[in-house]
Amino acid sequence: MITVLLAEDEAMLRGALGRLLDLEPDLTVIAQAADGDAAIAETARHTPDVVVMDLEMPGGPDGLEAAGRILAARPGTRIVLVTRHARPGVLTRALRVGVRGFVPKSRPASQLAQVIREVHGGRRHVDPDIAASALTLDCPLTERELDVLRLTREGLSVREIAARVHLAAGTVRNYLSSAMTKVGEPSRHAAARYAFERGWL
Question: If DSSP codes are grouped into helix, strand and coil, which group holds residue 183?
Answer without folding.
Answer: helix
